[in-house]
Write a structure and sequence with these properties.
- Strands 5, 6, 7 and 8 form a four-stranded antiparallel beta sheet that branches.
- The longest helix has 21 residues, at 6-26.
- By secondary structure, the protein is α+β, with helices and mostly antiparallel strands.
- Helices cover 35% and strands 15% of the residues.
Length: 971
Amino acid sequence: MIYKPPQRKLLRWIALFLVGTFLQLLFYIPIPVLSQNSNSCSNITAPLTPEEQTYARGAWQYFVKNYQPATGFTNSTGGYPSGTLWDMGNYLMALNAARWLNLTDQADFDSRLNKFLTTLNSLKLFEDALPNKVYNAANAQMVDYGNNPLERGLGWSALDVGRILAAFDVIRTCHPQYNDWLKGIVAKWQVARSLKDGQLYGATVLPDNKTLLVQEGRLGYEEYGARGYGLWGFSAPKAISLEPFKLVEINGVQIPVDTRDFKSTNANNYVVSESYILDGIEFGLQGELADFAARVLDVQKRRYDTTGQLTAVTEDNIDQAPYFLYNTVYANGVNWATITDANQPYPQFRSISTKAAFGWRYLFPDNAYAQKVFDAVKDLRSPDDSGYYAGIFEESKQPNKALTGNTNGLILEILYYKAKGNHPLIASASVSVSTGKPSENASPTTPSNQPNSTVTTPTANQPNSTVTTPTANQPNSTVTTPTPTPANTSKPTEVAVAPIPPVDSPKPSSNLKLDRPLSIIERRYAEAAWRYFQANYHSKSGLIDDRSDFKGATLWGLGDYLAALHAARSLDIITPKEFDQRTRHLLAALIKLPLFAGELPSRGYDTRSLQSVDYGGNAIPEGNGWSALDLGRMLAGLYNLKTCHPEYTAAVDKIVLDWSYLRVVREGILSSATVTKEEDGRSLTRVNPVTRLGYEEYAARAFQLWGFNVDGSAVGGEYQTASVEGVKVPVQRRRTDTNYKNQYTVSNPFLLYALEFGLDPQMRSLFEPIFQAQAERYRRTGTLTASATTLLDRKPYTVHSTITGQGEPWVALGDDGQPIPKGRLVSTAVAFAYNVLLPENKYTQELLQGTTDLYNPLAGFYEGFYETTGKTAVGFTSSTNSMILQSLLYKVMNRQPLIRPANSMKSPWWQEVTKGNSGRGLPNTATQQTHLISDSSGSYWASSSEKTPLVTGTKVEAREQGAGSRGDGKE
């Protein structure tokens, strides 16, 4: 560097200050004072105008159309599956902007981000240190810039690392549930290898295959990249210092230029718009950088004033060779140079940049020239709605039809900056958490490709609500949905339940022996599923909501919670202390639940007040009957708690001995009670056999664990079938003691049975055709199928995606038995369970790949996704997240049934049974009616008594969807 006398340097800075002051006044950048609330991620203080909403939707379509579902990445250019770390940072910024601008909902955001981070975390790194310069976006392989696979890679780019670190900071700030995941990724990377002597260093591979570290960054981008590093605690003081630079006069404006040019360093010292725009919208332009940005905009205006040519220059892809150019204010001694990375000139392809025009327009909203150049490109969208073109060629006046993530991502980021009232995206004083809903000030517009993004949450006191709430947890429920009472603004009194006293000698873990620990990815899934039970836990009552949008629980849902507790502890997701505290709290709450008619727990409870409620959430002090199926779910959970954690035996037996079984078990058949209102106001209780296929068999096996003779409900006997995809699928039992209403076949109960009890020969003959029909449908149509009952946070709230229902194959039904067009879902829980039960099956592997990313790390796994659109189905339930936890436990237990046999028959329960004549319908003998068997087919629980062989010869025809049908499950 040439020595400059101090006087000359002082005069230079004085001149710089005076000119800068003038330009600051001329190009005022509004940088509002940061406040506690105004700068939060969701605080949209300047909502987009209808025209701006059109801009945002157009830009977002680029990412919708260039998404790679296998990796979660997006193409860097339209249709070309390649991407750098810079491109990935662009996408993360665009995704965050799309979320808060309400272009996508929280479920889609989570699905995309989960897949992205899963792939990013598993990328092969260059020299196991940092991500390669470029990857194939479709398969995440390391490639060269021609997208050709490379075993070693090209090296890394420190500037690209800085870009994605800035994006990571925005994600962890606005969506803190991803913070730990992002920290883990950064910790895995050897970021320090890209820093040397306070500067940023990239890596490149020489012809002799050696790695060379090369200083990266020139004035503008160097400072921006260093800021990204600084957000994660990596200091690069020289890189952020602005020096070395000089002022070069261009069109009468003194432009700051890096003195390290191509001739001396083999790196371009170009001056472009984008680095200043990024700094402005993300960090806020202040001090010298604000002055520099104003100069860079002014010189482009001066060129227009002199030549009449609108000017907005920055680097861009172009739609012809050489495909990428730097349109500059200055580069390597040449004003208005348009060059390649190798400094080859292409002045004929200089263009007006769309992203630069958008950036200057919103960074300097009162600047007339910025508005003028913006007007030239604001509608430069592709006619097929694939996003914004990169710009307009100056010479030909034709559009530069390159479609890129850089252009469209920066447009979204800029519009989000505007919507936040020109608040920098990173320099915030406070943050908000993604809860699945932008602020009320956010743009309400929902794009046409997001048909389900409007959230309607059912509440107990909505006067016009037609809620049919926990049907997945109430599988035998065929009652008409009760009419909710008029809106009641009074909040239920929360009941504080004291946990039962500490048990004797609590064990540090269950007595289960795991075949192996969870893998890193499996642990992430388990932790995500457990999050549901953290997010929906009532610390006063000790209960868990069946679903996140409804403050209520059924005994089935509480059984799900008990099973989840056991799985989480066995998998070491929670500590022994947390397990013990939660278990004692739940047991205490079960003791306090008011019983219907003094016999059995009611069908539903308010999780705050413990009051009996109907399925609409309305208080029913006298209760509304009981569900034998729900009772079976709870009995299975309590039995396993005693077996695996015998220290809770006395507390468990106290609960079940308080209940009366006189009417729930009758003549070897399970029965449930319902309450109906007569016209004269009387309430009448009716007890009828349960009939829900799969659920009845599951509950019966649970009752058998406790010694009840329920052979009439246990699996076996004669079943009617329907032909679906050429497979005889069970539809219902053949019994004459009841009328069947709204019959349908779904996977849930059969999977739960298989996980907990194993597949005995009779159940296997039902389980296998149910799975085969779904796999055959996928083979025939290519439609992923995981049929289940799922709960949503909007109408119709409950969807039965059936294998067969009401005589039709593949119909989606509501709780009222009415078809739901295009309502079929692929169930996340079903996908997980099938995969662990049939791990070698290629179809179950496909199912798992399609659903593993459907979770919010703060709220748990979503219910699934829609078959027709692929859009995430918004809803969080204890049933789904419990089954996922149980599936993961089953996987590491060497595929043994989760219900383990008891070691002792001397507990209080069996002592009371031995006494006989209890007046509460206890079993006749102190003997379990089922036992665990191991043979060549595996381990499973089987009935102890002789049982009529299962028969599936009676056929009920279901109209099959063939090649000539309409494709929606109906002819």
